[in-house]
Amino acid sequence: MDPSAKTVPVLYIRVLLGLVLLFGIAGFLTSSYREDRETLASLHFDTARTLAQEGRATEAIAEYRAALSLSRGDFEYQLELALALMNEGNLNEAQRHLQELLVTDPTNAIPNWAMARIADRRDDVSTAETYFHRALYGFWPPEPRPGSRPTAPVTRIEAHFELVDMLARNDAKPRLLAELLLLANEIPEDAEPRKRVARLFLRADSPSNAGVIFENLVRQDRQDWAAYSGLGDAEFAQANYLAARNAYRTANRLNPEDADTQARLAFSDQILDFDPTLRGLSSTERHRRSQELVRVALAKVEPCRPAELPLLGPDPVQEAMDSAREMLSQTRRPRNIADALETNLSLALQFWQARLELCPPAGDLDAADRILAKLAQQQSS
Fold first, then answer.
1. End-of-domain residue from the set 89, 104, 119
2. Structural domain of residue 332, as residue ranges?
3. pLDDT in tens, 25-35
4. pTM of the prediction?
5. What's the chain look like in SS3?
6. Is the residue at 291 inside a domain?
């Protein structure tokens, strides 16, 4: 046998062993290189978080960028960079990163929430609302244990509050009410978030829902002056002025330093001083109040009337005004106070209706207007 024939397999084996060794070394070096990159990326990321906590946002962003450059495609690194950019007002770049993340994981709540915030800052309410809903019904990180670092910049309930606050700012009352009805069933029993929801119900023109929450709060804590004040607001918005005054009185007793409660209590007193239907009044006092309502309503409708009216037949408003002036000029006590009271209220409400048609009140209603509006509502219901 040719001796060279034996050396060929040996040489072949040696080459294979050499290649295996080289590949092993290359794999080891590659793995080591990757581990070193990941370790370095992690160091940059931890440094970025520390800088962010210290309020050094620009430096933190640079460290986030360094971490992401060493570990391309890392979801957490890219998300933290996007949030940092968003917080610094770099909305365009933040949005690009968030859109990339949502391609990877469209149901992740945090990128959707951040996109909603960016749209809100741009006053794009419709887009913001869409992303808020995607966030609310997406997947949220687990709630952190007490004392541990939060795993997300916001909780689901906090994001829901951001949505309703945005809707309130933009006066989107029907959609605001719909969200509040959902949020009211999600918030904890803590007093402060429930007060916040109740206040938002008032802004959504739903004082009855606000009143239910405030009533529960005052039953839980009879010393909670803010809950009593809120209950007063809810009753006031429903034209329940006596109940509102009682709530304001309790709030003022518990916290006599609150100027807003004092002002609302004083205004409730003024309104009730005009109300001839209030229980406990003598017939004489009811009649006096009805006369005062006629006097005020007449004075408010007179400037709304044109100086000269076309002659198109009898003018019921003018006839009512003449009748009211004659009644107000009399000083004698009427023979039948009940009939006089009914006549006076009819005149006052006729003037109120005429005023609504000719020159509706601008701005907030005063005390007499509120009683006239309440009486008109009761008459029509």
1. 104
2. 280-306+314-380
3. 655 444 554 55
4. 0.83
5. CCHHHHHHHHHHHHHHHHHHHHHHHHHHHHHHHHHHHHHHHHHHHHHHHHHHHCCCHHHHHHHHHHHHHHCCCCHHHHHHHHHHHHHCCCHHHHHHHHHHHHHHCCCEHHHHHHHHHHHHHCCCHHHHHHHHHHHHCCECCCCCCCCCCCCCCCCHHHHHHHHHHHHHHCCCHHHHHHHHHHHCCCCCCCHHHHHHHHHHHHHCCCHHHHHHHHHHHHHHCCCCHHHHHHHHHHHHHCCCHHHHHHHHHHHHHHCCCCHHHHHHHHHHHHHHHHCCCCCCCCHHHHHHHHHHHHHHHHHHHHHHCCCCCCCCCCCHHHHHHHHHHHHHHCCCCCCCHHHHHHHHHHHHHHHHHHHHHHCCCCCCCCHHHHHHHHHHHHHHC
6. yes
